User: Fold these one by one.
Assistant:
Number 1:
Amino acid sequence: MAMSRTPVSIDLALKGAAPGAVLWQWLYQEIRAAILDGRLRRGMRLPATRELARQYGVSRGTVVAAFEQLHAEGYLEGKVGAGTNVNTRLPEDFLTAGSQSPPVVNASRRSPRLSQLAGRLAPAPAPDLSLPRAFRPEPALDEFPLDVWTRIAARCMRRATRSLLADSDSRGYLPLRQAVAAYLGSARGVVCTPDQVVIVSGIQHGLDLTIRVLVDPGDVVCLEDPCHPIVAAMFRVLPAKIVPIPVDSYGLDVEAGVRACRWPKLIYVTPAHQFPLGLTMTVARRLALLDWARRARAWVFEDDYDSEYRYSGRPIPALQGLDRGRWVIYSGSFSKVLLPSLRLGYLVVPPELVDKFVAARFITDRHSSVLDQAVMCDFLTNGHFGRHIRRMRELYATRLAALAEAVKSKLAESIQLPETEAGIMTVAWLNKDLEANAVAKAAAAHEVEVTPIGVFALKTPRPEGLLLGFAPYNEPQIREAVDHLALALKGCSVRSVSFNPHRQ
């Protein structure tokens, strides 16, 4: 197409600019629309910027800015001041070029390939942002002292130094690491220095770093059975060889573990409050586990996700304290006990592993938000964390008692609750050959959320049971939900095989 070299007077039929509009953006959009709908033809020479400015009553700088943007995007060519034309090839031509090309035979063979790990990834579940329905397990978010947190955050911003606003140590904000080390030493019996603490985005992130540093594809790892599905998935995508180790009423069955795998690379446990069964590993089992790890030269990952919420007696000190920091990687989370969206947790790693963990953190996401760490540090050191935990412990104990009373009153023939010592959820074992999946489906129809224990099993058969969260629900809500669950149970069919609900 031959270009028109003589500038012409054109009427773009521009719409008036909206009140408050940025003039150059308005002019850019109007000229672009004129090009796309053909009022300005390809190759057409545009009037000079001064002429357009005079014609539409704007400054020449406004026209120049619009022309520069259109030139950068490929709608115009030439130089401002030396003649400007509509481009003969517009950006939209390239967007539609693929559809005009003949189909490619075996196109899938020519497309870029994914990694083997990508092929093992399952789709990520969509987050459930709806208001919780009993008995979804989560903390009581409406009880969090948001006003206190907001005041601390505002104070941190007002007093922020250059070092706080700049890049940070991949181990984390030093004052927070010092506060975490002091807290863990007094509350959990963890033996560590601040240099062994690595601030992470939660326990899952800490486990990911641990896998990167300690586990190779094909290595053998021992997992509690049952355990959280995400934990198993993280090892499967590596892929590692998973050996499920059954859990009984004393915790991880170490003798069964030794029989199943003498030389694991890593052993994953939740000794303070086994997920999802809620058991506490006995001291004898802990010592046996550490002995197994020493003989096998295996690392132990201790997931201490909610030991703060304990309702009877003092918690048994962390496994890491018995080990004296030699083989155990200890992990904890502020997100689990405060706010899920906070995404702050910590690892305590043996001294010889610190440099490797910090290097792995540096090449993944460098460090967590330093401002959030500073706020968390003040929240912890000024006593707000301890006060919140004590208040929630009392509140959750009351709500747990209300759940136990309601179940005993309305569901005694169908459900039995074991004695729950800690946490924000409990297991409900089903009687009368009820099937957990059927109960969960029927409960959902009555606006009640329960999770079958079977979804957490790796290999070991379990009696039919449900996971019930109680923390965010007041006593009337708990009683109402139990009433709905009772209605749901009336319509459930029974299984053909009987299980002893007390057997674990």
Number 2:
Amino acid sequence: MTEAGSRFSWPDQRILLTGGAGFLGRHLTKKLVERGAIHINAPSVEEVDLREPEQIKKLIARVKPTLIIHLAAVVGGIGANRSNPGRFFYDNAVMGLHLIEESRKAGVAKFVQVGTVCAYPKFAPVPFREDDIWNGYPEETNAPYGLAKKMLLVQLQAYREQYGFNGIFLVPVNLYGPGDNFDLESSHVIPALIRKMVEAKKNEASSVEIWGSGTASREFLFVEDAAEGILLGAEKYDGPLPINLGTGSEVSIKELAQLVAHATDFRGGIVWDSSKPDGQPRRQLDVSRAGELLGFKAKVSLPEGLARTVQDYRKSMGL
């Protein structure tokens, strides 16, 4: 919420966007330009190592941002999380800790931290309400990543209380869409399913194998909707409470596999490898706070979003 009589103006903002070259970052940059933003600085990982406070200090001194949107993260699916728990904890925690501290010291007017649904307890009541974020330990396979992000919520709330630092914390659910990561070693479930089924159809394979039992549920947010929610947060919200960003509806992994099969026109069988973990049993967000405080509502349905993502993947592969 902006002060009475004030109006948020994108052309007036000097924006530092971390992770701007990533999946969400590219879509967010496009929307920033559409909003009229002129001063956008999105350094690459080669330009600035956000784990190093001196590099962050020099970056902020050079850019002199009025607004920082922190997207940069080390992320991946269940397999990547299981293989890199230490890296996923350290890199994600230390990047945010240093960036928030240097922003505070430099007097940055607003900081937008993008968190993760992985911060929620493994057995949080469904739908996940923001008030339940501390009522239990996260699902084990992605707990280091989720806890690293959740520490930044603590930092922002503490800094608001002690220093008056205006930092907000947004919690998007699982994202997907054009330009996603389709590397099977590190991708999330939707791009992994799309790649497997497109390749299976091309190679005339009789079946595809999918991790888990298929009984777990997930909620998915199209990346363009997520970018819109983040910009609404920057424009309209200046409070300490975390805000969920999602659709408010869940789908089982078995149902998702059928939707992806339809979108890719894959007509073979699906083999479930139940020796592999399902991850968190259920994920569905309560998105009422985002509606009330941001006026946010997701626009892209899952079937439409899958069709657009499949089309983009096929185009990128020359299919």
Number 3:
Amino acid sequence: MNLFSKLQNAGKQPNPLAYELPQGLRVQIMRLWEKGFGPDERWHPGPGRAYIEINRILCDEHQLMQLPQASQQSIPLQGVIAEYFILLNDTGKTLDVVQVVFNTMERLLHRISDGSGDMFYKSRYQAFEIINELNQRFQENNVGFKYVQGRIEKIHQGPPPMPLKERLVAGEPARNLQKIKDMIGTAVVTAVHDPYTTTGSLDTILKLADTGAKFSPLLRILGTEKTLSKSTEKKSFMGLLKDINSERKASWKARVYPASSKPHRRFLILQDGSVVTCGMSLNHIDKDEVLDHETAGSENAQHDHKLFEQQWKIAIAI
């Protein structure tokens, strides 16, 4: 319901998300599962079956012979589970109860029957309706959890992480080449950092140029000494680089630096300050790897710019 207190607080700046379940929210959750399963009556066997299943799973997983009961009077199993849930001090185990109860609801509600039909015939709700209400209650109480397909997920503070734009796929080198080109867009590539730079890397750069990717006439290519240590590979690389500069009337330069540990960072620096990061080396793009675009000024883009310039200063020309 749109109660006055909710409407009054609607425009206020929310507090940081909490990661515990206050008593008021626990009561709301308990009422939700009672609403979903329906009344636990003698001639309505569904809820009884559900509570037996919930009790069994909680005892197994929480290593209990039986759920502890604080009240002195005799109460039905539904009440024992509710009491256990309300009095738990361990937030993790409290969320376990939520997970077990609503997973049981998803599996059993209106899905099992006896000789007379639906065992939950007195429940007027479907599981997804109750679960939607559960997640709404989490949100209303500014609690950073949600129930999704049988599990509890934590909602992290702050803006969500940027999703990866593309994924390169093994067995699709031509499409991978197009994905890299599309990620570059209309920007101009001014520098390439690829610790495993080889002649194959230059071939890939040429293929990208043929598809429409733009490379600066002053392109800087930075690799490591190890990959070009063989004289035959170095001679082949330098020959192709010379031919490229002659044909393109360019002044591409290549340098290598010593790598003390196995390097992994591979990226293209664009003229607008942004960076395209590649999970694989340009010498072989036929792999399952990530491909992403770091915006200009972002922390990752600044890190890559700094890394490139530092290594370029200590690197030696091939």
Number 4:
Amino acid sequence: MAEQKSIDAAINSVKDVTITKDEFERLREMVVKLGGKEEEYERIELLSGLLDTSDIRVLTWQCKLINLLEGGLAPEAEEDTMLSLGIPLGTAKRFLKQLEETQVIASKKVQLYWLTPEYSWLTMYTKEPQWLRERLEILVGKEAEYQKYIRRNLENIEEGLVVISEQFELPSGKVDIFARDVKGRDVCTELKYPIATSAVIGQLLKYREDQKVRSGGISPRCILVCPTVPDRLKVLLEKHSMEWHEISMA
């Protein structure tokens, strides 16, 4: 709560001041740091799943729409405002439904949407679409590089692992590396970069259950591989009989 108040104060302090784009970006970096690096990576990871990073035009209107949500948005009554900002009505309404399904926003029967309190930070991250796009692309690029490194150096996880499939499809999602160990047991390996967050627990639990059903009741091993695994996450992984390895790129 204290950290959030500090962030809000930093944001509010510039509302009535004219600053350059470079000054704004430096201030944003400072504000982001107030939340802590782990929190920053968790937020960027969430945004990478919500927003379109391949088309800056789409990302721009998505960011504008999120900022409209700060004070509440009734799409049917505010179509003119949305159109004036270059927000496509039909696609935007589908995007709002997606945000509602992930509980980033809430709605009322009159179709009024507003950001839920725990996601109020979204407005700061979406003020400058180009800045956000660069952060998202860095994350995606580094994750892809990290996955290639781990795939080439699988022995760093465990000797004798044999890859069966990469991006192995299960009902709940795609396992980064599906392998078998020297005893013939299935291994679901999830890769994260640069810091793993608690959301990975849910992923691995779903993978384990899906593969257990698929294999006739035999649970697979679940392994998290990441350069940094926070101590609190290590405790949770051990609690759920899951393994972890901190491996950095050489």
